Protein 1
Amino acid sequence: MIMKNQIVFALLCLFIFVNPCHAEEINAQKLLEQVDDNLWANTKFITGRLIIDNGRKVRTLTQDSWMQGVDRSYSHYKSPAREKGTKMLKIGGKLWMYTPRTDRKVLIAGHLLRQSMMGSDLSYEDMMEDHKLSHSYAATLEGFEEFTGVNCAVLHLVSRDKETTYQTRKVWINKEERIVLKEERFAKSGKLLKQIVFLDYGKIDHRMFPRTMIFRDMLKENTRTTYKFDVIEFDVEIPAKYFSQSILKR
Amino acid sequence: MNWDIANKNFYRQGLRAFLNVLVTALSIIALIFMLSLLNGFQAQATRNLVSTDVGGGHYRVPGFDILTPTEWEDFTMTVPEVLNGLTAKDKAEVLIQQGQLYPNRRLFPVQLRGIEMNQSLLHLPLAGLKSYDDKMGNMIPVVVGVKMARKAHLKKGDTVVLKWRDKGGAVDARDVLVVDVGDIVNPRIDNGVVWLRLDHLRSMTDRDKEVSWVAVREYLGPVNGFEFQGIDLLMSDLLALLRQDRINSKILWGILMVLVCTSVFNTQILNIFKRQKEIGTLMALGMEPGRIVRIFTLEGVLAALWALVLTVFLGVPFFIWFQGVGFDVSHLSEASFPIRETIYPDYQPREILVSVSIVLALIIAAAWVPVKKIIRLDPTLALRGRAIT
C-alpha cells in the first residue's frame, strides 16, 4: 500500500515539476524576446523597394523610411513617377499621407488604416506595425519544423488583448540565430490571412536583419508584395522635422 | 346664332380642321401619358423603397451615414427600450458593417447587412436564412441579390470567404454559404450587399443587441439617443431626381403646346386672310366686329372641343391597353433606381383635369389673338380683299 502511494506521489511530482508545456512556454516567450531584441532599435533608417505583384502587373515603389520607436515613422516615396513625392507620416495611431498631385495631406485614421496600401498585400496598418511581438503576444512552443533547410522552433502567439488586429500568429524561428524565417497571421476563426517570409538575412551592426520580406494575402490569388531593403541603418540621428506635419509639403 | 355660324364655318374648313383637331388630341394624349407615367414611376419607386428598406422611417444612431462605409462601425448602439417593445410587424432592427468578400479569391468590398428574421415590416427574399439556428455554426449562411450575384459571380450553394472586423478591431474571416440568390426589387440593397441574420452578424462582430438603425412603421416621437429620419429624408435623392424629371417633362409639355398653339394660330390667320371678303360682307350687313371676333374664336374653341372628344376616343382605349401591358424598365436594373419591374401609369383625375383645362385655355387664346385684329378692319378694304395683306 505504501509502495503504491509512493508511486502515485512520484508521478504527481513528475507531472507538476516536469510539465513539458510549462517549460516550453517560458522558453518560447524568452525566444520571442530574443528575436525582438535582435530586430529592435530605437531608430532606423531604411532605403527600400516595394515590389507589388497583383497577378497581372508588377509595380515597384522605392522609398526612404525613418522610424523612431513604435510611434513615429516617416516615409518618402521616390519612384515611380506616379508615386514620386508621396509622403507618409505616422505619429501614434494616426497616419497622414501627402500626395504632390493634389498637394494635400490626408489623415488616414480608424478604418481607413485597414485598406490596402497602394494596391499591395499590406494594409496601412500592416505597414505601420512596428511593435514588439513579445509585448503584444503570449508565445507557446508548438513544435519543431524544417523550413528552408533550417530546423525551426514554431511558436504559436496569442494576443494579450482583444483589440489586436491579428489575434493569433505563428512564427518559425531559427533558434540558433534567433531570427524569424516565416510568419503567418490568422483571423479569430483560425483562418490563415497573411504569410510573410523573411529572406536574405545579413549582419548589420551587431544584428541579423532580413533584406527581403515577402508578404502574401492568403485570401487573394497570385498576389505578393516584396519589400526589399537596400540600405538599413540602426540608431541613426533623425532630425525632429521628419516627425512633424510641416514636412508634408512639396 | 353665333354657335351655328361658327359650327358651319368650322366644318367647311374640312381637312385643315381635322388635322388641327388630331394634332391637339395627340398632344393631350401625350401630355396625360407623360404625367401618368411619371406618377407611376414615383409611386412604384416609393413603394419599393418603403417595403424593402425605409418602412415608415428610421430611428438611426446620430451621425450614421450610409454613404460613409469607413464610419459604419463607429455608429452602432443598443436598441432603446421604447423600440424594443414594438411588435415584429412594426419594426425591423438592422445592423450595417463593412466586410470583404473573396469570390474566386478576388477582393470584393461589401456591405454586411444583418436584419431580424422575425420582422415582417420589410419584404425581403430572406426565407433561406430563417431555417438556420440563431447560434452560428462553422459555415455562415448569407443571401445575396441577383445583381450582386451576377457581379461577384456567385450562385446558390457557393462557398466563399468573408472577412470582417469585430468591435475591438480584430480581424476575422470565415467561409460563408450562399443559401439563396434573392430577387430584390431595390438595387440599393442588392448591389454590394451581403444579407445575414442579425443574430449572426452581432455574434460575428461582438455587438450584442446593437443596431445601426431601427426601421419603424410610423414615427413614435423622439427617442433618446436616436434621431428619426422620415421617408422624405431617406428618399431625398430619388425625390430630387423625380422633381428634375417633372421639370424636364414640363419643358417637353411646353414644346408640345407651342406646336399645338402654332397650328391653331396659323389656321386662324389663314382663315381671316382667306375670308376677309366674308368678314367685310358681314360688317357691311351690320354685324358688329366684336361679334365677328367671337364667331372666329368659337371656331378655334370648336377645334379644341373636338380635340377633347377625339382624345377620349383615341386615348381611353390606349390608356386601358397600356395599363395592361405597362412600360418595361428592366434596362434600369443596371442603374440605382429602386425599380426594376414594369411601370404602370398612375392616372390622377385632378391632374388630368387641370392639364386639359390649361391646354384648352391656351388653344382658345391662340384662336383669339390672330382674329382680334378684325375689330380694326376697314369693311371697304375687307370687301375688296385688301384689308389684310
Protein 2
Amino acid sequence: MIDFNVAPFEVVRDYDKCVNCRVCERQCANEVHHYEEGFGKMISDSTKCVDCQRCVCLCPTKALKIVPNRNSFRPNANWQQKYLTEIYKQAESGGVLLSSMGNPEPFPVYFDKILINASQVTNPSIDPLREPMETRVFLGAKPQTIQRNAEGKIETKLPPRLKLSMPVMFSAMSYGSISYNAHAALARAAEKLGIYYNTGEGGLHKDFYKYSANTIVQVASGRFGVHKDYLEDGAAIEIKIGQGAKPGIGGHLPGAKIVGDVSKTRMIPEGSDAVSPAPHHDIYSIEDLRQLVYSIKEATEYKKPVIVKIAAVHNVAAIASGIARSGADIIAIDGFRGGTGAAPTRIRDNVGIPIELALGSVDQRLREENIRDNVSLVVAGSIRCSADVVKAICLGADAVYIGSASLVAMGCHLCRTCNYGKCNWGIATQRPDLVKRLNPDIAAERLINMLTGWNHEIQEMMGGMGINSIEALRGNRLMLRGVGLNERELAVLGIKHAGEV
Amino acid sequence: MLLEGEFRNPAGCAISAIFDKTGARFSGADIIDSIAVMRDRSNGLGGGFACYGIYPDKKDLYAFHVFFTIHSARKDFEEYIARYYEIDSDEDIPTRKIPEIVDEPEIRRYFVYPKQQYIDFVKTGPDECVFRTVFAVNTEIKGAYIFSSGKNMGIFKAVGFPEDVGRFYRLEEYEGSLFTAHGRYPTNTPGWWGGAHPFGLLGLSVVHNGEISSYDANRRAMEMYGYKCTLLTDTEVITYILDYLTRKKSLTFEESAEVIAAPFWSRIDRMGEEERARATYLRDVFSAELVTGPFSIIVGFDGGVMALNDRLKLRTLAVAEKGDKVYMASEEAAIRRVCPSFDKMFYAEGGKPIVYRVKGGKQ
Amino acid sequence: MKKIYVKEEWCLGCHLCEYECAYANSGVSNIVLALKDKEIDPNVKVQTDGKITFAVSCRHCDEPMCISACISGALSKDETGAVTVDKSKCVGCGSCVMVCPYGAVRITKEGTANKCQLCMNNTFGEPLCVKKCPNGAIVFEEK
C-alpha cells in the first residue's frame, strides 16, 4: 500500500555539532532519533516527529532543529496541503480526525486588533513602583439591597465569593488529560499566588485535597469523580456545560489513559473509556440548569459560589442572560480558541466564536438587562499575555482563565498531539516515565514566575492609564481602540476605532 | 465639530465653596470674588454656581432651571411638564446683559411638584418622579435641557469665565446658605451651556476638578442602573454615582466617599475586624463606583456640603473655617480673598471626606 | 557543607549530566570542541537497573574511606570539606577505588585517580551537572 503521508516536519541535525550523546534518543517518546552503532552516528526519522521541541531544548550542543517539511504539493490556494493530507488520513483510516489544543487556523485574533490607552497631560499616569496598584478581585454575585442592623450598621455578610490576588485563574484541565505532576504544579502555584486552579472533569486526586482553599471543582456531563467530599472540598463548584474547543460535544478519554489513580479518581474501572455525554442528561433546558445549580447549592449549604461554564457560541449573550438568572454566581465563557486534550478536528476548527466578541456582547447584554451584578464574568479561550488580560477586563470581564498559557509555562510547545498520550514534556500523558519529566517544584515555580511577571505588566499598563485599582478597569471600554476593524466588529466589541476621540 | 455629549471632553478646573453651618443666608457676592481669583484655572469656556437656600418661599417645590436652545422646545417642554406636574409658577431667570456673555439660550425656571397620580404611578416617591422627568426631557425633548432640579436650590451656569457668569446671573442678588462655584478649562470648545458646571440632579450638585480614569467603567455601571450619561463628563457621572449611592442605596455621604475614593486594600487589611468587614463590603459590592484618577470635588446637598479628594491626592483642595462659615477652594488664595483671617485652615487628605452639615439638619 | 545530592524521583536517565561534566572538566571553552569525537570519562555516572536511574558522583563523605586508604597522600579534604585529588602525588595504586562504597573514584587513562571535585577547580565555579539537569534531579545544597 502506498504511504501517502508526508512528514509535516524535518529534523535537521548539524553533524558538525552532534556529539552522539544520545540525549535526543532517550528523550523522544515518538522514537524519532536512534544511534546507528555501525555508522557511529545519530539518525532521525522525521515522519514520527511532532515538533514538540523536547530534543531541541535538551541537546547540549544545540545540534538540532525542527523545520517545516519543504516538500510541497502543487500550491493551491483552495486545496491547501492540509486538506489533502487530512483526506489521505481519512481514506486510510475511515475515522474522525482528532486534534489537540486550541484552534490554530488563521481566523482574526481580535485582541491583536485592540490597542490600550495611556494618560498624557490631562491626567497623570501612576508609577506602580511608587504607588499602590491594586489587582485584587472578588468573584460572585452582588447583593441587591443593603441591609442594616438596629444600630444602623451595614450587615456585611455577602453571597459566597472567590478572592483573587490578580484577575487570572488556571482553567479546567482534568487529571487524566494532564498528568499528576502537572496538577500538582497548578495547585501549588495557585496556592502561592492566591488564585485558583480547576480540577476539570476528572475528579480530584486525594493528594490534592490539601489545596482545597485554592481549588475549583468541576461537575461535567460525565460526573466523573463527583461525590460529597469532592464538592465540599472545592472553594467553588463549576458546572461545565461546554468547552471552547469543542462546543456541543462531550469528551472522550481513551481507556488507555484510565489507569491506576486516574481510574480511582474518576471512579470508573481501569481501561474503560471515559465518555462524557454531549449534554448533561439532566439539563435539556435553562430551567433544568437552575435546578442543578440549586441542587449543588443545597448540597454545599450555600457556602460556595457556583460557576457555569459555557462555550462561546452564536447566541452566547442570550444563554448568558439565562444563566445570570439561574442562581449561578459566576459565568465562565470559553472562546473558540480554547485548548483541549483531544477534540474532533472539524469541530475544533469550525465551531464557536472568538472570546473577544462573545465577551463584548455578553457584558453589554447583561448590563442592558440590569443583571450584570448577579454574576461575575470569567473569560477563557486563548489569553496569551498580560495585555490580553487587560483588554479582556476593559471589555467587561472580571477575571480570565488561562489553560494553554499555563501549560506553555510548564514546557508545552503546542505541538498539539496531546491525544497521542506521549507528551515528551510530561504534561499531557499518563506514562510514568514521561510524567516524571515534569518536576512540580520547577513547574510550579515557572507558573508563579509567569503570573508574577504578568501582574507587574498589568500594573504597568493600569498605571499608564492612570488607574490604580483593577475594578476601575473593568468594563472601561473607552480605554480601548480598535485598529483595522469594521463597524460591525467595533459595535460588537463596544469600542471606537483608533483615532476617534 | 461635535457637541458636548457626543465625545469625551477632559477639562481642568477651579472650584470653590462657601457654607454657613447655622444655615444662615448670605449674599452670593463673595463666591464670585473667590472663584475670580483662580481665573487662570479657567479658560472662559464654562463657569457656574450652585446656590442652596435661595428659594425659601418655595422650599417644598422642585425648581427646574431650563435652557431652551431652539424656539419650539419651550412649548414642547411646557406641554410635557404640565401633564405630570402641578406648576406653581414660572419665569425667565433674571440676567444682566454684559459683553462677556454671548449667545445665551432662553433661560427659565419652573417651580413644580409631581401630580399625585404620577407619584402613585412611580411608587417610589416624588424624587424618583423628578429623576425620571429630568432624563426624559434631556434625552427626548430636542432643545430643552433641565440643568437644575432640586428644592430650594438652583444651579446657574454659562459659557464664560465664572465671575462673568456670576454677574450675568445677578448672583449678588441671591441669598443662600451654601454656594459652590466652578471655572472650567475644557480641552475643546463645544460652546454649549449645558456642558458648564456645576452638574446637578435633584438636590445634589457637584463641582469637580480633575479627569477621572475610571470614567467608562463608572458610566457603564450608572447606565445599567438607569442613568443616561448625556454629557459624557466626569462631573455628570460622579453626580449620578452619588445619587445612586445616597438616594437609591441609602448610604451616607461618608460611606459614599468610602466607595468613590475607597481606602487601599493594604490599609483595609490592617483594620480591625468590624471595620475591615465593612470596608471590604463597600469595595466589593460597589466596585463599579470606585473612581480613580485625579479629582477634587465639592458636593452640595440638601443640608450640607462635602469635599472629597481622590485617594492618591492628585488634586489640591483647601478648607478653612471662620466662626460658622466654612470655605473650600482649589487654591488657598481663593479663600484668603474673601476670608483674610480664619480660625483654621487645612488641606483635604486623599480619600478622606470632609462633610459639614447644617446644625440640626438631617444627616 | 554544600554537597551534590540526587533526587532519584526526578532523574530521567537522560545522561546529560555526564556530558556536561565531561565538558566542564575538559578545559575547552566550546562544548562541541570539548566533546566531539571524544570518548567521555565523566565524574558523574548515571546508574540504572533498567527501571530506576540515578546519577552517582562523589559523596564527599564526612569520614572518607578513600583518604584513609590513600598510600601517597594524594587525596585530602580541602577547607570546604570537599575531597580533592592532587594528581602530582597520586601513584595510581587504586586503593581508593577499592574502598569507595559508591564507586565514585576511578583511575583514568592517565593512570591517576579522578573524581568529582564540585567544579571548584574549573571555570564554571558551580557544578555544571546541577545547573544543566533538565528536571532538577541533581541539587547542590546544604543538608
Protein 3
Amino acid sequence: MSKQLNLTLQVWRQNGPDEAGHFETYTAEGISEDMSFLEMLDTINEGLVQSGQTPIEFDHDCREGICGTCSLMINGQAHGQEKATTTCQLHMRKFNDGDTIVVEPFRARAFPVVRDLVVDRSSFDRIIEAGGYISVNTGAASDANLTPVPKEAADTSFDAAACIGCGACVAACPNSAAQLFTSAKLAHLNLIPQGQAQRFERTENMVETMESFFGSCTNHGECHEACPKDISLDFIAFMNRDYVKAKVKNRKLAGQT
Amino acid sequence: MAATATNPKGSTPIFRRKWQLPFPLNIYQSSVGRKWVMALTGIGLLGFVIVHMIGNFHIYEGPVQLHEYAEALRGLGGGLFPRTFLLWVLRIGLAAMFILHIHSAYSLKERSRKASDKADFVGGEKKYGSKRDYVAANYASRTMRWTGPIILLYLLFHLADLTWGWWLGDDYVLGDPYHNVVASLSSLPVAIIYVVANVALAIHIFHGTWSLFQSLGINNPKYNELRRSLAKLVAGVILVGNLSFPVLVTAGLVDDDNRKCPVGDVECLEKEAKEH
C-alpha cells in the first residue's frame, strides 16, 4: 500500500460574492500519496457531507490538465509549487506528512469569488469575444493543406495555443495583469496565415478589453513561473510589438476608423 | 463553467476608455502604449545618466579640465547656435522625459492597484493568506516603485546642491564645479545621501534595462539571456562609476589642495582652460 499522509489544511470559505470570507482549518488523515490534490479535497468533502456540513466548493472538470477549470492558490503559488502542472495533476506525493497547506482562490478584482474557492473568470471570456477567433466563409469544406503554414510559425503558434485560460497568470501577478493570457491567445492566431486578415484589429480589441479589466504588466515574470502550460514571456513582447504596430497600421487604412 | 452562469455579479471593468485621441496620442491611452513611453523615456534617461557619469569623470583630471568640460556643455553646437541654447534644449527634453516617465509609471500603478483592489478581502493591495513566495520577481523589479521616488527626491536634492547651490551658501562658486563637488561631498551626511541614492539608481536601472526590451517587444529567444547580462553590466558600471565620486572625495583623494588656481578664481580657470 502506498504511503499515507496526515495533513492540516487551511481553506478559504466564503458564502457568496459579497460576503466576508475566512480561513477554516481542516485535518486530512490517511491521504494516499497517489491522490491528486483535487482527490484529496474530495476526500475532505466526503467527510464534511457525512457530518452534515457544507462541502468546500472548487472548480474542476477534466482532471487531466487540459481544460483550465481547476484553479487554487496552494501555499501562495498558483496550482501549487510544481512547475508547469495544474492543480488536478498535482500529486499528494509532492507534500510531506504533517504539512500545513493553505488553499485560497485565485485573486484579482476581475475574478470575483463566487463561493469558497470558485472564482468567476468570465472577464477572460470578454477578452476572447473581443477578437480571439478567426472568421471563415462557410460552405463546402476547403481542401486540406490549402494554406501553407511555415513549420516554425505552426510550432510557435501551437506553443501559445497551449494556454488553457485558467487564470494562474493573473493570480500570480502582483499587478493582477492578464498579459500572459492575452498575449498567448493573440500569438496563437497572429503567427499563422489563417489569423492574418484580422491580426491588427484583433490585437487592438483584445489588448484594450484586457486593459479594461486587468492591471498593467511590470515584467516581473511571475506569470510564466505560475503557468501550468509554461507559456513564454516572449509572447508578451510579441503582443506589445503587435499592439503599437496595429495602432500605426490601422491609421494607414485611409477612411476607416 | 456552470459557476459563471449562476453568479449574478460577474466582473465589471475597472477602466473604460470614453474616446480615442488622434494617432499617435491614442497609443498613450493604453497601458501597453504607456509601457512603450516608459521604455523609450527610460532609454533617454539612461543615456543621460551614462553621459553625465562619463562627463563627471573629468573631475579626476582636475579643476581646470572639469571647468573646461562644463564650458563645453554650455557651448554645445559650436557657432551654430547661441551659447547655452542646445544645452537648454537638452534640459527641456530631459525634463519632458522625466515627466512622461513618472506619469506613465504612476498612472499604470494606479491601474494595477485598481485591478488588485478588493481582491484580498482585507483591504489595500492584493494579498494571499499564505506567505507569497516570489519565484521570478526579484528585489529590483519589486522595488521599482520605491527606487523611483528615491531617485526623484535625490534628483531635486542634487539640483539644489550643485546646480543652485542652496545650502553651500557662500562656499558655492559659480563656474568652479570641482570646488563645489568637493565642498558638498566632504560633508559625510551628503556623501551618504549620494551613496544611497546611487545604489537605488543602479537597482532601478537593473530592472529597467532588462524590462525595456520586453515593453518594446524587442525580444528573441536567441538573445534573451544577453538582456540579463546587459542589465547587470549597465547597472554595475553606473554603480561603480557614480559611487566613485562620494567615495573618493570622502577618502580625501579628490580635494582642493595643490590647485593651480585658488578656489573662487574663475578667471584663472578660464585662462588655464584656454592654455590646456
Protein 4
Amino acid sequence: MVETVVSVGLPIDEKLMIQKNRLIPKSGINGGEKRISIVTGTHGDELEGQYVCYELQRRIKENYNCLTGIVDVYPAINPLGIDSITRGIPGFDLDMNRIFPGSENGSMPEYIASKIIDDLSGSTTVIDIHASNIFLEEIPQIRINELSRDSLLPLAKLLNVDYIWIHASATVLESTLAYSLNVIDTPTLVVEMGVGMRITKKYGDQLVDGIFALMKELGIWSGDAPEPKNPIISEDGEVSFINAGKSGVFLPAVKHWKNVKTGDHIGDILNPLTGEINERILAPANGIVFTLREYPIVSEGSLIARILA
Amino acid sequence: MEERILFELNSVYRDNMRIKGYSFGEGDNSACIVGATRGNEVQQLYICSQLISIFKQLEHNGKIKYGKSVMVVPTINSYSMNIGKRFWSTDNTDINRMFPGYYLGETTQRIAAGVFENVNSYEYGIQFTSFYMQGDFIPHVRMMKTGFESIELAKDFGLPYVFRRDAKPYDTTTLNYNWQIWETKAFSIYTNATDSIDITSAREAINAVLSFLNKRGIIDYKCHEGYISQLIEGNALVNVKSATAGVFIRYANVDSRVKKGNVLAEIMDPYTGEATDKIIAPLNGIVFFHANQPVIYSQTPLFRIIPTDDLI
C-alpha cells in the first residue's frame, strides 16, 4: 500500500510528497513482525536504487506467500532532485545527506528529514542505497562507520556485496541518514554501487539477492534466497587514494575491479589543446581497483581511483 | 599594500584561479578578513574590496599600528563567481565545508588547505558569509559554541546583536570553526544581502570591522563605535513558519518591532490572488530574520523573532 510519509506544499499548485510502498504478509500483521526498510534517492543524481526498489518488489510479488514480515520501500526521499536531475535539494542547494536528523521546527528540508527519521525509526534494518556520483564508478560495497562495526558487520555480510569498508568516524558524517538512525538503535547499512545517472542492472540484481538473504535471516522471507558471497572486508589503512595532479581529460588504462601492481599504468590525463599527456598515473600499491573515475574531465585533486591493498 | 597569490589552481579549460590576499602593515599577523567563499556572495566581495581601499589609505597615512598587519582575501572562489554558481564550479561542493582542507585530497579540499595555511596564523579571523536560506538579517556577528568563542570580543564590532548557537556536525568543516580550533579568535559577520549589493548594510559592516580593529589596537581609526551589542542565544529566537505555500506578501521588515497578533505577512493563492493564510506574530519582539523570496514552500521559517517585553 502506497503511503505518504510527509507532504509539503509547493508554491504553485503542487505538493512535494515523500512516499513509501508497504508490503505486508498476506495473512496481515499483528504488530510483532520484523520490518526492513529500503531507502534511496537521497541524491537526485543517484539512480541505482531505483531498479533495486522495482526488482525487489517484483520478486516478492512473484512469491508473495513467502513474505512473513514488513517491507517498506522508499524510492525517492529527494523526489524533486531526481525529477530535475539535481544532486541536492532544488531550491536550497543543500546536500540532503547532511541535514539529518532534521528538525520539525527547521527549514522545509529539515522538516522533511525529521519526518523521514520518524518513519524509519524502529525498522529492524534499514538499507540506504547510494550510487556514488556522476564522477566515480563503485563496485557494490557497504560502508560502515567504525563506531557501528559490531552491530552492522554481521548484517552487512549477508547483503551479497563485493566489499565492506569500515571507515573512520568523522564528525561531519554525523549529519547523514545512516548515522542518525544508527544512534537511535535502528541498524542502517549504507550501500554504494555503480555510478551516478545510470543503472547497472547487474549490480542491482546482485544487491536484491543480498536483500533476500538478509530478509531470510531476519525472518521476513520464508522462501529461497541465494547464498551471499563472501565480501572483502577492510579498514581505512588498506585503501590507497589516487588524485589527479593536473587537470585535463582522464583516459583509464585499467578496468574497474581488476588487480594492479605497484607501478602499473592506471591511466593518463590528456591535454586536448596541446596533444600532450599532462600526467601519467601509476598505481601506488598492489591491490584491486574498487573505485574508478568515470567522468573524464578532471581538475587538480579530482579522485581518479581507490585501490584496496 | 602587498598583493600576493595565496593559492593557484590550474585548469585546461579556463584561466587559472588565483586566490589573492592583500596585506597591509608589517609585523604580527593581527587580523585576516575573508570574503566570498560561495559564488553568489557578491555583497561579501564588495565589502572586502571597500576594506582594501580603506586599508590602502590607512597604510598610506601611517594608521596601521606599528608591528601589526592585516590581510584581506576578497574571495576564495572566483571560478564559481564568474559563472554564477553558488558552490564549486564542477562538483558543486562547498569550499566552506572543506576546512581545514587536505593538500592531497579532492579539488575543494586542496583549495581549503591552500587558503587555511595562509590564514590560520592570525590572531583575529573575520569572515563575511551567507545563510543557506534566502532572506535578510539584522546585521550581526554570528558565533558557534566551540568553547573558544569570546562574546565580549564580538561586542567590539558594535553591531546590534551577537548571535551564538550550538555547533552542528556539518559546522566542523567551516572556516570559522577551524579558525577557532587553531586558536584564531573567529567571527562571522552577516549583513542583509548576499547576491546583490546593499551599500547601506555594507557600510555598517565595514564600520564594524574598522571599529573592532581600532579597539583591538591594530589600526588608528576614529569612527562611530556602534551599539552596545546584545547577545542572543540561538534557541531564544522564535521561528514563525508558514502552514501553506504560495505567494509571500511581506509586511514586516528586519528590525521591525512587532506586537503579538500583528500581521507579519500574507500568503496568497498564486492563481486566484486570494489570501490563503495570514502570518501572525506569536509574541512581542523584533524581527531578526525574514525570508525574502516571492514564493514560498509550506513549512518554511518566514520570520525569526527576538522576544521582547515591549510594554511601551
